[in-house]
Fold these 3 entries.
Entry 1:
Amino acid sequence: QVQLVESGGGLVQAGDSLRLSCVASGRTFSSYAMGWFRQAPGKEREFVAVIRQGGSSTYYADSVKGRFAISRDNAKNTVYLQMNSLKPEDTAVYYCAANPSGWDLTLPRAYDYWGQGTQVTVSA
């Protein structure tokens, strides 16, 4: 069992930056791929970014490439999402999630553990 706790969301203006954090419980954090997803009202949950266990392999949705950066600190059991040049269309609840298997890393169903979500609102 893994517990994930997110923080860092808020209300910002277009063009601003935010850094989201997700702290995981448990001893085996370093063995999981960690992903960020987001969900806006009336929309399906969508993939944002993922980082593999080693921390050097990352992948991003086209909508955030060049603006967002995912990173992790295994010593702190923490994964981050640095969000720059935020746009109103980035407004959503952002979730971190853990994938123990390492497969299907862009699919929500492949992640076994989820945080509670943190709201990001970007005004025009």
Entry 2:
Amino acid sequence: QVQLVESGGGLVQPGGSLRLSCAASGIIFSRVPMGWYRQAPGKQREPVATENSAGTTNYAQSVKGRFTISRDNAKNTVYLQMNSLKPEDTAVYYCHRLNPPYDWGRGTQVTVSS
């Protein structure tokens, strides 16, 4: 059974940084494209950053230059380094498998506030 477990969220001041982690189990992680999505209150879930198994990355325009997705296949973990955080980055962040069966983690809350 596939499990995706996010961690690393929290409360941070504007301009601060956080690193989210998503630990995967039950899959051959190195072959799986992964992504980070987020959902703010009252808004639809949206993609933030994705990385395929070849290492190609894509970012939402709103986070380009501030967020970085990376993975450690030996640890079955995908990361999201978030720098220069803004209040509008406040959301629940989800880890997502980008191929069938498109598993989701349960999410981790990120709150950017002074």
Entry 3:
Amino acid sequence: QVPLVESGGGSVQAGGSLRLSCSVPDLSGSNYCVGWFRRAPGKKREVVAAIDVDGSTRYADFVQGRFTISRDDAKDTLYLQMNSLKPEDTAMYYCAADNAPLNIFWMITPGKSDWGQGTQITVSS
């Protein structure tokens, strides 16, 4: 298992922006697909965005062009730029990594059990 640490969360008004970071040990020397997930109170965990080692990306429908996932392997860091935030984006956000192709990662990873602490996003109207 890969221990990950999320940061960058906070409270913003609707329409605002936040940038999340995730430390991914040995990202530069891996074949990891990495991604962001979230869980709001009363809802199940859902995948937000993912990026593969070749730079291929996939986004949830609710992003609608608002979020951008990126990776800096030289810094062992994953990012999520979140723009035009909405109250329904309020959730705990988590990152994850695995040696899997992008679409398999997308389908399988939400069901894993070893999530980290996460970082809280709160969007007020």
